[in-house]
Specification:
about 45% strand; mainly beta; six-stranded mixed beta barrel
Length: about 325
Amino acid sequence: MGAPRLTRRDAASAIGGAGALLLTGGLAAAQTPPEPPVVDDDQATVEPTQVASGKDAFARITVPVTINGQGPFAFMVDTGANRSCISTELAKVLTLPDGGKVVVNTIMGRRSRNSVLVDRLQVGSRAQRRVKVPVLPFVGTDIDGLLAVDWLKGQRLILDMKRKQVSITASRRDTSTPDRVVVAARKRIGQLTIVDADLGQKSINAMIDSGAQLSIGNPTLRAMLDKRLEGKLEKVTMISVTGETFVGDMLYLPFLRLGGVQLGNVPVVFADLPVFGLWGLANKPALVLGMDLLAAFTVVSLDFGRSTVTFEIG
């Protein structure tokens, strides 16, 4: 049987024309310098958890989170960030104690942000204790915070779009089937970079970022495009959840392959962002895979223990 195919005819139907205002999330609070590991509850280290998921105004996945026993609050699941964050408004409402300044790497570079101290941050049956959480001024969205990959620690994150569920479980081995494709991946700053991806039979680096509304490519990837596609680029202005803006060029790629899955008509915004340099990908063809593309699958599972990503389309 040939590789599964998905066509993205309506992937950006809500975007509008050139110059539309778009929102991207995970790139906005991509990385913070590593700190000592947080302390988990005994239960959190052994028990899987599953929660019902929702969506924010831009169709990105949210889950209910409680803070110090209060809530639930809507946190966006952000696989493009290595550290969970909280909104300025929620930190004020909960009168959380000050945690001092922390450095956050955003789409436009390094930023100094305030932080707060959270005694217990819980998702389902899992909790983190005594956490220092960066505070971000979220703009144009109704989310209360970002839930990052600092929850995973060698485990498995399952984004089930079909059943509207998010699960964190133990790592396990997957096998490919006609409706399931397992893609080898490698870790980069705690995240996963898909190895088996290509554009026009040329290998590229693809990063899973459930916090980004649209997929974003770097200039090196753009240079690989057929020159005849340049005339089809449209200028767009993007704004991050923290209010930072940048201008990019959007194009519908006629063909992209992820593992054994072939994607057609994929919307991608090309921009020269500092975050690509942070990931060590400034001079390598790289693509951040946003929720517009991930939503084409029924289930996406990121296994941080086995360094694989599984895409299901059945």
